[in-house]
Write a structure and sequence with these properties.
Chains: A alpha/beta, B alpha/beta, C mainly alpha
Largest sheet of chain B: 6 strands, mixed
Number of domains of chain C: 1
CATH topology of the largest domain in chain B: Rossmann fold
CATH architecture of the largest domain in chain B: 3-Layer(aba) Sandwich
Largest interface: A-B, 44 and 39 residues
CATH superfamily of the largest domain in chain B: P-loop containing nucleotide triphosphate hydrolases
Number of helices of chain C: 13
Strand content of chain C: under 5%
Number of strands of chain C: 1
Order of helices and strands of chain B: HHEEEHEEHEHHHHEHEHEEHH
Strand order of the largest sheet of chain B: 6-7-8-3-9-10
CATH class of the largest domain in chain B: Alpha Beta
Oligomer: heterotrimer
Number of strands of chain B: 10
Number of helices of chain B: 12
Number of domains of chain B: 2
Shape of chain C: elongated
Helix content of chain C: 55-70%
Distance between the termini of chain C: 49 Å
CATH topology of chain C: MetI-like fold
């Protein structure tokens, strides 16, 4: 990816080795990724592929064993005073949306407290009234209206989809440039997923927020990342990396192909046809079955 | 529980439900239903006190399951699909109860069983030998300190004390081979020594152990990796085609329903709002809730549909 | 053919989530007490004892006259526990002596809980060298046999009052709780909402005080109650050994006097010995049942048994 402009976030040869009793485990092995301003990059892989570890490293929560993480061209894991300033800027610019909406909100804080704490801490608002106004704005951005009904709610009083929207609103409080969504939709019901994804897409376009979208679900990656890139991870390595639609319609790597073939189809005829191809049982009677 | 099973067949909904689209290539279900459910209601008390409010999780559900069929219960979390699955076998947690409705099971010899009227001992016999269940979260279904062999033997012995050890061993090996596992290795293992996919296979094998007529699967592929999920879906499909059992499976994943079901029932707020042949539900959904569910599923294959199959 | 069983009637809004069971610390406390009957009884008994010991002395004479005719006198309706070695009413002493016991136990528990929570949370949250130092200090204090240390301290310093006793008990009572708090904070620290707070750069102080500690309120309360029982036992032991200041009214002193002055040899002075022992037992039992019911609420595995 040769850009004239510096990418927003750059992972350069990231390697993460975990020491365990059974020996060293290379969770992430020489991974390089680039994400431009307002772009979307999907990181796809099965559990244990190293995608979540890569996300933790990209968010600055975990320092890699080897390799560089650059934010707007500056390395964030260096030493010295200039680096700590870089890290502070980076810390606010990169936010995270977790998988489990039941675990990612503090159970004892209402929505207003959850959303106003970062605003007040970083002096983005001067008074309680101003905080209220800003929080209502954020809630409107994530589609939780009217805001007044949500301000006093505690996590247990909301549905999973509503909680996840609050988590997104919290990630937006510091006006980040990049949001890392780590399986952010996988625990939600299907009908809520699409709503959340289109809301995220809208945020990306309206606010210019970049997204690193981590998922095991290729259909989700295709839906959310069709305008961006996809990187397929397997055993800590990136096995395929390119524009999403190209990779999904014409996978080059054998593992990507296997993944794509394994995806269950919400279409009985197509599922049947794929199964017949897979099992090598091709009865001529089904060849012409039209797909509705 | 006042209804008798013979009244059941005169219920107009049952004749409706048997009609299927023959052009879809599916065979009209033959003969009498294996399981008839009528106006089943399942409630949960919200607390231990007598005055605690009661929540109806299943609000009067009726359907028939015919031999060789595979019904998918789809719906979102909280719609009552899992509760319904548990209620059919009376596996509800302590606070759950079935205040009304009937569940009638037809034995192979044609005699009818009132499942809700069985006593605990009859129920235990019924559960494995007539109707087996595969739960979500394979690890919890195993006793961590017993080898797979001991657990399978226990299951056999609980129902058939006459079977000798070597006969039991042969049967265990047979069902394990059916699910593409190596019996010599697996029988000696503890549950934690197996991978998630293998544990799921062992559970499916155990459910086949006593040759039940009916199988209930609760989210059989949830929490598995895509590749493992694919293998399990294919395995269930193959077993269902090859062996003589009808199944009901609960899934929030519509794609899995599309792959495995012959009929689909959409549940919403404790009721079945739409039920029909799998192709009708996916290609011509009538109820707006079913439509919204199906439209909400993204697919990797929308472009692939145009691609002709290899030939 | 598709069969619509129930068109229209289902509106497409998601059903509301069930009312949650977690709320503030006080509500949790009340709910915990209400849900467990033994816990509620324990709470009532303890509240009753506290009231009796705090308000009771107002209605009792401050100084009891010595009456030689009633030495080791047996129990009667007006004097339910009889008389002591100086002919004073044991019941009046019992009422007057409870306050010190409960207050010393309370104060000691406050001191050790504060130490344990502050340093336990810091150790777990900051980790690294801070953690190593605090853990090492805890291990050292934990290996010191506290009752012997107390005996030594009492012998050398002639502990002046019940209050300094409370301070000593509190300062020695924290290591066990510190370990528990540290473990709890360790697990809370890995929750996703704490990770989110770190990503938002909310600051260590705020994260610990506003995000982590309130989530352990009932856990701390439970351990506070257990800390109180431990302090009361330690105090009773010290008094029995005669290592604590023998002044004022205190159940511990009563036991010591009844023991050393040979009440066991007198018929009818059973009440004299048993009264303070029984009082301590009741307080401890009520505290333990209270703490147990907290544990039931906190530990989901116990909840359904």
């Amino acid at each position: 990816m040769a850009d004239e402009t510096t990418p927003l976030l750059q992972l350069d040869g990231i390697t993460q080795v975990f020491r365990t009793r059974r020996g060293d485990v290379r969770a992430v092995d020489n991974v390089s990724l680039n994400l431009g301003v307002g772009e979307v990059l999907c990181l796809v892989g099965q559990s244990g592929s190293g995608k979540s570890t890569s996300a933790k490293i990209a968010s600055g929560l975990l320092k890699p064993t080897d390799g560089e993480v650059r934010f707007e061209g500056a390395s964030i894991f260096g030493r010295g005073r200039s680096h700590s300033a870089t890290f502070k800027g980076f810390r606010r610019a990169v936010q995270y949306v977790h998988q489990d909406p039941y675990a990612s909100l503090n159970p004892i804080q209402d929505v207003f407290t959850t959303l106003s704490a970062p605003l007040r801490r970083h002096r983005l608002v001067k008074s309680r009234a101003e905080a209220r106004e800003r929080v209502s704005e954020l809630l409107a951005q994530v589609g939780l209206t009217p805001a007044e009904t949500f301000l006093p709610k505690f996590p247990h009083q909301m549905s999973g989809g509503q909680r996840q929207r609050v988590a997104v609103a919290r990630a937006l409080t510091l006006e980040p440039r990049l949001i890392i969504a780590d399986e952010a939709t996988s625990m939600l019901d299907v009908s809520i997923r699409i709503g959340l994804l289109s809301m995220l897409t809208k945020l990306r376009k309206d606010l210019g927020v970049g997204f690193l979208f981590i998922t095991h679900d290729l259909a989700m990656a295709k839906y959310f990342g069709r305008e961006g890139d996809i990187a397929v991870m397997h055993q800590g390595r990136i096995v395929e990396y390119g524009p999403t639609l190209e990779v999904i319609s014409n996978p080059q790597d054998a593992y990507t192909q296997a993944l794509l073939e394994a995806v269950p189809e919400p279409d009985p005829d197509l599922a049947k046809r794929k199964r017949e191809i897979r099992l090598g049982v091709r009865s001529s009677s089904h060849r012409g079955t039209p797909a509705a | 529980m006042v209804d008798r099973a013979d009244e059941v067949s005169s219920d107009p909904t049952s004749t409706d439900a048997t009609t299927t689209d023959t052009t879809a290539g599916s065979v009209s279900p033959p003969g009498e239903p294996v399981l008839s459910v009528r106006d089943l209601v399942v409630e949960y008390r919200t607390g231990l006190g007598a005055n605690d409010p009661v929540h109806q999780a299943v609000k009067g559900v009726s359907f028939d399951l015919y031999p060789g069929e595979s019904i998918a219960l789809i719906g979102e979390s909280g719609c009552g699909k899992t509760t319904l699955g548990l209620g059919l076998l009376r596996l509800l947690p302590k606070l759950g109860s079935i205040p009304s409705g009937t569940v009638t099971y037809r034995n192979r010899d044609g005699s009818l069983v009132d499942v809700l009227g069985l006593n605990q001992q009859q129920l235990r016999r019924f559960r494995w030998s007539e109707c087996a269940m595969v739960f979500q979260g394979a690890m919890n279904s195993f006793n961590p300190v017993l080898r797979i062999w001991d657990q399978m033997l226990d299951t056999i012995r609980a129902h058939d004390k006459s079977m000798s050890k070597s006969e039991a061993h042969d049967r265990c090996a047979e069902v394990l081979r059916d699910v593409d596992l190596d019996p010599d290795r697996v029988l000696k293992s503890y549950a934690h020594e197996l991978s998630g996919g293998m544990r799921q296979r062992v559970l499916i094998a155990m459910s086949m152990l006593l040759r039940p007529q009916m199988l209930i699967l609760d989210e059989p592929t949830t929490a598995l990796d895509i590749l493992t999920q694919r293998a399990i879906v294919d395995l269930i499909h193959e077993l269902h085609e090859r062996m003589d059992f009808a199944m009901i499976f609960v899934s929030h994943d519509l794609a899995v329903a599309a792959e495995l079901a012959t009929r689909v029932a959409t549940m919403y707020d404790g009721k079945i709002v739409e039920m029909g042949d799998v192709r009708d539900i996916f290609y011509r959904p009538q109820h707006k809730y079913t439509q919204s569910l199906i439209n909400a599923v993204p697919t990797v294959a929308e472009d692939l549909r145009e691609v002709p199959s290899h030939g | 053919m598709t069969q619509i069983v129930d068109a229209g009637s289902a509106d497409l809004k998601a059903p509301p989530p069930p009312e949650g069971k977690d709320a503030g610390a006080f509500k949790t406390f009340v709910r915990a007490m209400m849900r467990s009957r033994t816990g509620f009884i324990g709470f009532l008994v303890f509240a009753g004892m506290v009231l009796l010991c705090l308000i009771g002395p107002l209605f009792m004479p401050d100084t009891l006259p010595t009456d030689t005719s009633k030495i080791y006198g047996p129990a009667s309706l007006g004097h339910p526990f009889g008389f002591d070695s100086e002919g004073r009413d044991v019941f009046v002493q019992l009422i007057n002596g409870g306050r010190a016991v409960i207050l010393v136990g309370f104060l000691a528990a406050v001191i050790s809980t504060v130490i344990a929570v502050v340093f336990g949370a810091l150790a777990a949250y900051l980790g690294g060298r801070v953690d190593s130092i605090i853990v090492a200090a805890t291990d050292i204090v934990l290996t010191v046999p506290s009752i012997i240390l107390l005996a030594v301290l009492a012998a050398f310093y002639r502990v002046g009052s019940a209050w300094s006793l409370a301070v000593i008990l509190g300062v020695l009572g924290w290591p066990g709780l510190l370990r528990a708090v540290r473990a709890q904070v360790f697990s809370l620290k890995q929750r996703e909402y704490i990770e989110a707070a770190r990503l938002l750069d909310l600051g260590t102080g705020r994260i610990v005080i506003r995000e982590i500690l309130p989530n352990m309120a009932s856990f701390i309360l439970m351990n506070f109650v257990i800390g109180m029982t431990n302090a009361i036992y330690a105090m009773a032991g010290l008094y029995l050994l005669g290592l604590a200041p023998m002044q004022g009214d205190n159940w511990g002193i009563m036991i010591n006097f009844a023991w050393t002055r040979g009440a066991i040899f007198f018929q009818g002075s059973l009440g004299y010995i048993l009264a303070p022992v029984l009082a301590i037992c009741i307080v401890q039992l009520s505290l333990v049942t209270m703490a147990r019911s907290f544990e039931e609420i906190l530990n989901p595995r116990l909840r359904h048994n």
